[in-house]
Hints:
The chain has helices spanning 2-67, 152-157; strands spanning 70-84, 88-103, 107-118, 121-134, 140-147, 182-194, 197-207, 210-211, 224-225, 236-247, 250-261, 271-282, 285-286, 291-304, 317-328, 340-350, 360-372, 375-386, 392-402. By secondary structure, it is α+β, with helices and mostly antiparallel strands. It folds into 2 domains: 1-63; 69-402, Porin (Beta Barrel).
Amino acid sequence: MFKKTLILTILFFGIFLAKVEAKPAAESQNTEAESQKQTIKELKEKVDALEDQVDTLSDQVEGTHEGLFKYFLGGTGSAGYTFKEGKGSTVSATFSPHFYFLLGHRAFFEAHVDFKVNNKDVDVNLEFADFLYIVSDDVTLGAGKFLTPFSFFLERIHTSWINKLPDKPFVFSDSQGLAPESTLGAQFRGAVPIKSTKLNYAVFVGNGPSLNFGTDNPNEAGMLDWDNFTDFKNSLAVGARIGVMPIPDLEIGGSFIWAKVATPNTPVTDIDAFLLDFNLTYTPSIPKIKGNLQLLMEMVRSQVDSVDFGQGAFNNTRYGSYFQLSYRPLLVKNKVIKNFELVSRYDRLDQPSGAPQLSTQGFTFGLNYVIMPSVILKTAYQLTKEKGMDSKNAFLSQIAVGF
Length: 403
């Protein structure tokens, strides 16, 4: 009996002591759990408050970024000398600043102004000034005055320090060129990858050209004047360009322009113009000849409805083309030789029979020296022949800088 009582007593005290020890432990665990819950709650509140602050600051920064735009200044400069047989010599200089204004992450504005000194005259020309918005990787919208996405030369390489010869091809010359350098209107453009190749495109609409009747200069009768900033009589031009790169060194492109032509100060109406362009560029690096080749080829057809220019009507269809080949020995170890470049170009401009302009063809041979990547010294000899006239020689030189 005594043993049973002793065992029960020991068990009782053991249970009692266990409960006494467990109670503080439980209370301690409960207190710790409550403390952790409170800490988590406070941290969550702080995180939420920080997220609100970050959102507010982000909005403020974005607003500040949109309002205070960033800008970048680039451009080109050149100085040149030209001697043409029968016309004498001409000294020229150009300064063409290019302004970029970044308006946020997707929008920017660009402008390019040409200041050209030709003997005693200074010509100022706003080459382009347009606003662009990047919708996606494949689409960019633009509006304003922009380089016309019609030809490869005018849109890509007409800038003096990129063009490998001191002058432009005949088909894109300032005096008798067939295609517009700039258009006042709107465009959308982009590039789309297609398997192993890439397709670039551009579509545009703008003011159409006016037709020159030769009132002030009979030699310009039948030519198109693309500087139509007032959209005279609802003249309109629409066009597109597509380029495909089947391999990295080769691009094949084509473009067109259809235009309703303005005929100011004349009763003539309903004149249309249709222009086509085909171009090819091939720029391989060939170890066997220790250098790089560049082949450029472009052909333009301009068709304008026939009208009477006061001296009779003629079929107003014109053709122009050029083929240019250049070689630079970039793979040669000699630091001087590798900076020389040989260039040759064949030009052709066919005028309509009966037009006051004369068909012209020419050969140009050039030798360049690349002083540094954005500074080039160019010299060239040119042989030109107009239909029914004797051949004329010319010497051209130019130093051009890109910055």
